[in-house]
Amino acid sequence: MISQVDLARSLDAFAPQSAATPARSSEPLPPARSAREAPEETAAPSDVSISDEGIRRLQHEAELEQQQAATLKAISEDAELAAQMAHELAYRREVIVVPAAAYTNLATSLYVSGSSPAINATSIANAQSELEKSRLARIALYELESARGTPPAEIYNRLLALATAHPPGYSIALAAS
Q1: 94: helix, coil or strand?
Q2: 110, part of any domain
């Protein structure tokens, strides 16, 4: 049986790892050591390179997080803005965007990852149907919470928590009203 001390020691190499600083290695956890054993030297982390596209995506994600934090702050300070944003979030229409590579050969193409079933008219319709069900759930939540007199900022936060997962291989765009 592994003690908590042994487990903690085996995880020491991963202590500096966080969401902001992902793992530098994909090696398995080091074996647990007994309390009597001397600590071993940890291996130097392997070099990791990130593509330019990966760096752009990370930067984009960081910008989105900053924008979301600024939006949440503004909403908490302005009830009228919160009401407007909650209404827009609840009632917005989303549409499926088929990747350009898949669109050229819609009948036989694979998802972007290449590992999922084909994108075809049926799968597009199913994904769009799921988005519409999600929209109806957002509207129902918005109307229910508004009728209860829930503050608009809280309604907005609940709508964000109800966010739907995007179908794999597709992009989502807001439909023009």
Answers
A1: strand
A2: yes
